[in-house]
Amino acid sequence: QQPKPFTWAADPDKIIAAVKRGHQALDSIH
């Protein structure tokens, strides 16, 4: 059973922020 299969959908802003930080980190490496 998956009690919260879409927990990530509850905080899209956090995911977007994390993705942006990830892209910034990749850009800083290059």
Automatic annotation (TrEMBL):
This is IS630 family transposase.
